[in-house]
Amino acid sequence: MLARARGASRAAGRRRVGSLSRVSVPPPVPPPPGQPHERDVPTPPRGTPRPGAPGHPQPAGRPVAGPPPPAGSPVPGPPPPAGSPVPGPPPPAGVPVPLPPPPGVTASGPGVPGHGAPPPQTPRPTPEEDAPASPGSPPPAGAADQAPVPEGAGQILRDGLDVLRDAGRLLARHWAPLVALAALAVIGRHLVLNLAVLTAPVNNVLGLLVFSLVPLVWLIAVVGMLLVLRRPDRGSTDDDGARRRVRRTTGLVLASLGSVMVPFLLVYEYTGSLSDDRGRYFLTSLQTQMGNAFDENLELDPTFDATADIPDPTSLVVLGTIAAALLVRFVGGRILRSRDPEDDGGGWTWLRLVIGYSEVVWMVLGAVAIVEVTRNAQGWWRERSAAVELAAWWEGVVADLPHLGAFADAAFAVAAAAVGGAIVGVGVPLAWLTIGTIVYGVRAERVVDDPTALARGRLGRLTARVTDRVGAERIRRAWASMLHPESRFGGLTGGLGLVLAAGWLPALLFCAAFLLAQQADYVIWWLAGVALPTAVRTDWIALYPAIAAVAVVVSQVLSIALLASAADALLRRFGARSALRLPERMPSAAPTAAEAPAPHYASTSNAQ
């Protein structure tokens, strides 16, 4: 019996060993390149825990020691290579066995991920897309997808500090040309005004045409100061390339003259400069005529007419001059629209000069005529019987209800102060910011594809209603025509769109800083009072022109530096590259390839 039991045990062992031998065990996986083979690993000293023991990490790719798995169960091991069949139980009878695809063919079919479409591949940039662009050039094609997202107040405040810092750097490096241009503007304004007075006795129309150049002197100085602070475009270094760049820059400035002139005249009139020029022109002309009104016997000439050389702004002569300037602008614009699109504009500079001058003439004389018409309308209304009866009725109401009259007077004063404060504190700075955005000739229509959608997200329902009423397609067309020679006021529309789409908080921060810069003239007068404590009235009369000129120059230089920095920061928010004439800020540590900044068009501010 004992011998029979031993024989049965040996037979069972042989059957178990045979079943184990039929289990498919995968071949050993070779080690990765650079790692030693298992047979090359030195034997650990005696007493070291063997692999798989408690407290010893299990090497990767080694099977876990333990009892053999039962028959038919999968054997643990490394995953099979990609494309190889996964081991498993055989399929039932009658079911076809799927064959692996040949090399180089992607598996497809129902239930296979990515069925019906090749795997996505990331396209490589072309050499044109990878090449760095010059400052002020259009941003890359994907810049429209980089539209600004709403930031927090802290980030916007940091950006505002960066704007002030860049303005200070601009002043530190370029104060000399800025002061020179501002001083030339003060002198040129005085000389052109005197020239208009001298030409008025010859011909009234000629005097008006010369008088129209007085605001243009200031505008040219502002544009020149902004261009001084702007980095020049990089291109070919030969003489032909330099001449082409000069012609292109001149063409862009002349083309955008009409768009820049609109906000500039609004600022020029509201600050009182246009009315001051008109008053000085008429007063100086009258003084010149009075000097010629007496004969050698100091008797007044009976044929003397004090208003002979001073035309009425609403007369037919002035209105005819405005109409002729508009006609020249219209015909010149039609000629420019019919030119060859491939022409760089060098041969059309003279025509653009004529168009720009006609634009200035009709705008300046039109503004003078509008101011005069407004004054005449106010005087005409005061003389009407309806106005007299309305004033008498209100006086009776105030006499019967004095508290109502006091409340109405206070409400009117508060409303007038609020409107005036809004114009001075918000309207005028935003008009200057629009001027800087237009002059910094970045192709803004390529920065944002849909300005109306961006403005909707920034300003909410009010902008959406205005956009729907005006028409999104019209706004897009005006946006696309920004800084184009054929455009009338497309640059103005595009610049205002950029300012509004940037958000109210950055705009209000700029308004506050701009108002502070505009108060520099008060500081100059205070310093003059401190430096001249014993000056009498006659001394102040003699020193007034010089001190006033210094105050204007200082205020203008500070404002233009801040305007250039703010306009550049606004354009950078929409994907444009910095164009300020400032040195690059070297990073403290070498950045990686993904973090490396652009070579010459990187922003000059710390926070982007």
TrEMBL record:
Keyword NADP: no
Residue ranges of the region described as Disordered: 1-153
Keywords: Membrane, Transmembrane, Transmembrane helix
Composition skew (Low complexity), residue ranges: 1-11
Bilayer-crossing regions: 175-193, 205-229, 250-268, 316-336, 348-371, 410-433, 492-517, 542-571
Regions of compositional bias (Pro residues) in chain numbering: 25-35, 42-57, 65-104, 116-125
Protein name according to UniProt: Uncharacterized protein
Naturally occurring in which organism (per UniProt): Beutenbergia cavernae (strain ATCC BAA-8 / DSM 12333 / CCUG 43141 / JCM 11478 / NBRC 16432 / NCIMB 13614 / HKI 0122)
